[in-house]
Automatic annotation (TrEMBL):
GO CC annotations on file: cytosol
Binding site for Zn(2+) 1: H82, H182, H210
Key words of the record: Metal-binding, Zinc
Name of this protein: Class II fructose-bisphosphate aldolase
Cofactor note: Binds 2 Zn(2+) ions per subunit. One is catalytic and the other provides a structural contribution.
GO-annotated biological processes: carbohydrate metabolic process
NCBIfam families found in the cross-reference section: cbbA
Classification via Pfam families: F_bP_aldolase
Length: 285
């Protein structure tokens, strides 16, 4: 059933779990996520990221995402991830997204606040919710920021800034930087759990972990206990799909007759990966 980010995060708060939020640039991703969420009877968030606009135009993807969410047997929100363009954000709201993330983390604090307030104003017109970010997340979705030249401590979210940001913008969820990064990890991330606990004590809205793929199970659980209620996940799910395609081709000596066979193999492997993630986020044995 189609719902809002706030509604699924209320469920997460009540159960003391985190909701998985998965970038889904194609049907295979969507089916892998929703089928798994239905299997474990947990809410989930389907996300669209403008970074993939060239291969998955939002005008085509939005109606499909909304339809998949509406027909799901569990609560599903449709979310715009990492959007720094207010016009794009407005267009996605018009297309039916039930929540949006405005990412002004590369801007000055004042510019981030100003633009986030505009995003909140837009979203309220459509009954949608808003996530925003303060602090810089390393990796591919960091836009043009040269994060390699920034000290880690300067990228992390300052708890007092987070409190002020939430109060000024009236957002619904806060993405905080505390040691994760987008993409694949070359070394295990060192997460600053004390920082998350401090931020949680200062703000009264759900906290979001970006760069959730590749974090070990123990750290996921600890982050959830510290207050994380939404975990963004894609890279390792996407890689699992590639592994599924490779296995399918190897099994048939490269002689696969139809594309749907490859798509099914990718979906199966992605579903296995999503299942591990969802089980951990909802702390099911």
């Amino acid at each position: 059933m189609l719902t809002t980010m706030n509604e699924v995060l209320k469920i997460a708060e009540a159960r003391n779990i985190a909701v998985g939020a998965f970038d889904t640039p194609n049907l295979e991703n969507m089916f892998a996520v929703v089928k798994t969420a239905e299997k474990y009877n947990v809410p989930v968030i389907l996300m669209y990221i403008p970074l993939l606009e060239d291969v998955a135009p939002v005008e085509f993807m939005a109606p499909v995402m909304v339809a998949v969410a509406r027909n799901a047997k569990v609560p599903v929100a449709v979310h715009l991830d990492h959007c720094s363009d207010l016009e794009c954000l407005k267009r996605c709201l018009e297309l039916g997204f039930t929540s949006v993330m405005y990412d002004g983390s590369e801007l000055s604090y004042e510019e981030n606040v100003r633009n986030t307030k505009i995003a909140v104003e837009y979203a309220r017109r459509y009954g949608a919710d808003v996530e925003a970010e303060i602090g810089i997340m390393g990796g591919r979705e960091a836009g043009g920021a040269n994060v390699g030249s920034i000290k880690p401590e300067d990228m992390y979210t300052d708890p007092e800034d987070a409190k002020r940001f939430v109060e000024e913008t009236k957002i619904d969820a806060l993405a905080a930087s505390f040691g994760t990064a987008h993409g694949f990890y070359t070394v295990a991330p060192k997460l600053d759990f004390a920082r998350i606990e401090k931020i949680k004590s200062l703000v009264k809205i759900p906290l979001v972990m970006h760069g959730g793929s590749g974090v070990n199970a123990e750290d996921y659980v600890k982050a959830i206990h510290c207050g994380i209620r939404k975990i963004n996940y894609y890279s390792y799910m996407g890689k699992a799909g590639v592994d599924g395609v490779k296995s399918c081709l190897e099994k048939h000596n490269g002689e696969v007759a139809f594309y749907h066979e490859i798509a099914a193999a990718a979906t199966e492997k992605m579903q296995e990966n999503v299942e591990k993630a969802i089980r951990t986020f909802s702390m099911q044995s």
